[in-house]
Amino acid sequence: MAKPNGSGPKKAYLILYNAASAIAWATILGRVVAVLGYKGAPFFVPLVVDNFTRITQTCAIMEILHALTGVVPAPVFTTSMQVASRLFLMWAVCWPFPQLNTSAWYSSMLCAWSLTEVMRYSYFALKQVEAVPGWLHWLRYSAFLILYPVGISSEVAMALRAIVGPASSLAPWYPYALAAVVLSYIPGSVILYGHMLKQRRKYLGVGRSAAQKKTQ
Asked: InterPro entries, alphabetically (predicted)?
């Protein structure tokens, strides 16, 4: 998200924001895992995470504002795509049709999201004080290889279940609106996954090596 910014309000804000976000997503992950471990079924998961997850994910709108205002050097387009796709799931699928949230797809989606965000926000918080451990650096740019396909597959499955299920009860046009968004996942997922692969090459692969050689 950002390179260490030295001292000052901006650095303090980024540490606080990223630490709070990491804790929030760790709470979601812990609740999902605890419920699945204790109850052994995803049916009970939404009872303990639904509202908290909606609030936490909606707060991610700040990511777009950070990119727009230059608080962090993040690309506005890809940041907006990722945040928008999750808000679509939270508010256009999971909120109006809570009966869908009892499925395993909902739990797998939250696990993929929360694992990703715990690592990402922890990485950015520690980066502000130049204390990122090597293993976390590697996970930050490698875990998506598995977590992104799991997450997006779960998102699409949730949307499709709404389309063929209760969506038409909300409005006759609603299934078609959902279908249009799902179709946008085809180019969108390619763009986002390609961006993450490029970031991985930059920080773990050829790009990183080349940058190091230039500074030597």
From this structure: Tyr_Pase-like_PTPLA (IPR007482)
